[in-house]
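Bug #77: duplicate submission created two jobs. Keeping one. Sequence:
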Amino acid sequence: MSNDNTLDINIDELDRDAFTSLFDSYLDDSSVREGSVVKGTVLEIEGDWVTVDVGYKAEGVIPKAEFIDPEGNLTIAVGDVVDVFLDAMDEAEGQLSLSKRKADQMKAWEDISDAFEAGETVKGVITARVKGGLSVDIGVKAFLPGSQVDLRPVKNLEKLLGAEMEFRIIKFNKRRGNIVLSRRVLLEEERQVKRAETLKDLQVGAIMTGVVKNITDYGAFIDLGGIDGLLHITDMTWGRINHPSEMVEVGQAMEVKILKFDPDSQRVSLGYKQIRPDPWDEVDIKYPVGAIVRGKVVSMPDYGVFIELEDGIEGLVHISEMTWNKRVKHPSKLVKIGDIVEAKVLGVDVENKRISLGMRQLEPNPWDIVEQKYPIGSIVRGKVRNITDFGVFVGIEEGIDGLIHISDLSWSQRVKHPSEVFQKGDEVEARVKNIDRDNERFSLSLKAMSDDPWLSVQSRYFLGQVVKGKVVSRTDFGVFVEIEDGVEGLVHMSELVSGDEDWNEKYADGTAVMVEIRRIDQHDRKISLSEKGAEERSDQDGSIQEYVARQGESTARLGDVLGDLSRKLGG
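Kept job's structure:
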């Protein structure tokens, strides 16, 4: 072989094997050039350096660190053939500058280029979070945009750090060192394949296995294999849940039933509870009317509480059926969410899936014995609980209130509103007037605590008698005058002394007047009075004061006579 790298031999003098060996040696020697990848043999490993023979007149050394794997292991041994990058040759000094790392990078770029041209996938490890996406090591540094990570946006990209995945190269520029990857492309291709397979088995009524992909307030999206279906919250359970996350979690595998499927839009409605028996099928057998049941308070609207008897079975206790005490205005006064309560089944409507329950039915009805405890005419004591325009309600015991109507407050006092007489919390004694057990009404009377003055009015007054009274009210036709507590009479306009004067001012409330009794109607509680008549009698018989005094004496004597007569008759 001459110095000009040409073959200087007689080919006829060499056998085939010798020729091949000589030719390979020539090729190897001729390929050793700067900036290229060459093969070399490990001659020695000493200290931090590895000596490599690349078939040139001098060996080269490479840092031992370039042959250490991520786990810290040495990947070569003496005699191994390795690819190295010839960085520079110094023929004068007889030295070579070699690099195993650069050789790997060049080979990686070649492999990546081939994979890009062929549309093949590459494996890589996600190494860092960068602006707009992730950095991936595929032998060289590559960029994975956030939009290409998955089929749906990934909120927390940091959780993918260190993960090894397969990618498709969607942009490649070796000169600029720019590589853009996509994982989403592979997932979409995989999804299309799965979708085609899933569509073969997808039909209404079929039961399929899917994976929870996403959870919303109204349900969960289930991946059936390339096709997502919605499992609405109302189709998750026969019972009650507030949020789908109470039953399912992302990544959970579950069986579902196909309820609806639209091939055009490929929308799928799923059911989970439909693959389990409907508990309402036997509810009338398990919960007959009259049965005592036990359950948990799960909901509390203003009108009552819902009691969960079992998964999917709830009954309503209306507020009117919670207690015999009608003063309770909201269920929260009696129970709270989560309480375990007992109730009685009042009604079952299987068709509309409703159960009516009652709690008060488990306690004695105080109205059943109210007539025995408080007979008519007896006196009861209680506190004023409520005041209305028509009377006051008095609490007798828990669940029992008595009403004193405004007309039963007083024999004598004209009460325009009960608040003039009572305030909430006042202690009251009253007489039982009437009890309506069916309608749960308890009537009391305050004025009945004293005798009705009208029962004996004719024994105290007679026609022509002049008495003193006070004005209590005025009307267009006359003035009402009270002659004693509870007894009033009317002085007609024509019987007033004032005539056409301003009588409205003259007869102000509380004004004292002398009047003559003209007529007494005890049955209708009416007395006709005359101011003129009283004045005429005073003119005839002296002063009106003297006349009244004489009447008093006469009345007293009449009383004595009647008393004597009564004793004689009694004897």
